[in-house]
Design brief:
This protein is an alpha+beta fold. The chain has five helices and ten strands, in the order ααβββββαβββββαα. The chain is about 30% helix and about 20% strand. The strands form three sheets. It has a four-stranded antiparallel β-sheet, with no helix packed on it. The protein has a four-stranded mixed β-sheet with strand order 2-8-7-5, with no helix packed on it. A two-stranded parallel sheet has the order 6-9. A hairpin with a 6-residue loop joins strand 3 and strand 4. Helix 1 packs across helix 2 and helix 4 packs antiparallel against helix 5.
Length: about 240
């Protein structure tokens, strides 16, 4: 059950309209901004929060196929933080590398065994590459909690995007701490003010951005307890 600090999207957006001096009643469009526009900015604000704090984490099993070394990352992945062979944390952690290093070491691009390293160089943003090229397929992933699913496969841990809010009666992603709900209106209001050239809104933009960044830093400190928040990089 939501706590005292929790706020729905409607309450947060109402607060943003008040901050922008464009409030004309709960759920009503303002004189300058529409509610649909504010809801878009609300979702973008949550994405900004997730990217800068790493507070939202996800994990998924990548099924390894023999002879294939490039795979798609989860669709909700902002950036990966670790990869582990054989799935769980008792398996072997994969180390970051780059294609430059692969070239210098003359690592063959033929199947050589289980992946020991990963790279992102020259790949699409939603892809990851493993080296050496897998020589055998991992266990078939059934989607159950059976640990045999992890054998020969790679588990990825990553920072994820928040769940998109489509209705104003909904709350922000459940992974976002409720104590920050009170401050999200400042992030939304700052994004709304970016599109206004009036002096008063430009002044509000500066003030709201400062308040929002202070709130983000509070959540960032909390996110660090969950592990690294930066993208894993080549050695």
């Amino acid at each position: 059950m939501p706590s005292y600090y929790a706020r729905t999207a409607l309450q947060i957006i109402d607060g943003a309209f008040r901050l922008c001096l464009d409030y004309r009643g709960s759920g009503a469009d303002g004189r300058i901004w529409k509610r649909t526009e504010a809801l878009d900015e609300f979702n973008f604000t949550l994405i900004d929060l997730a990217k800068n704090t790493g507070i939202l984490r996800g994990t998924q099993l990548i099924q390894i196929v023999a002879g294939t070394n490039i795979y798609n990352l989860p669709t909700d992945c902002i950036r990966p933080t670790r990869f582990v062979m054989n799935g769980d944390l008792s398996g072997e952690f994969l180390l970051p590398t780059s294609m430059t290093r692969v070239d210098l070491l003359r690592m063959p691009m033929t199947p050589q065994g289980n992946p020991r390293r990963f790279y992102k160089e020259f790949l699409a943003p939603n892809q990851i590459g493993f080296m050496p090229v897998p020589s055998q397929s991992g266990a078939t992933v059934t989607g159950t909690t059976d640990l045999t699913d992890t054998l020969g496969n790679v588990q990825v841990w990553y920072i994820r995007v928040p769940t998109v809010v489509t209705g104003t009666a909904s709350y922000p992603d459940l992974g976002i701490p409720e104590f920050i709900h009170l401050w999200i209106k400042y992030g939304v209001a700052a994004r709304m003010c970016m599109y206004s050239k009036t002096k008063i809104h430009q002044e509000k933009l500066k003030r709201f951005t400062l308040v929002w960044r202070m709130a983000v830093n509070r959540v960032k400190r909390l996110g660090m307890w969950q592990g690294p928040i930066q993208e894993v990089r080549p050695l």
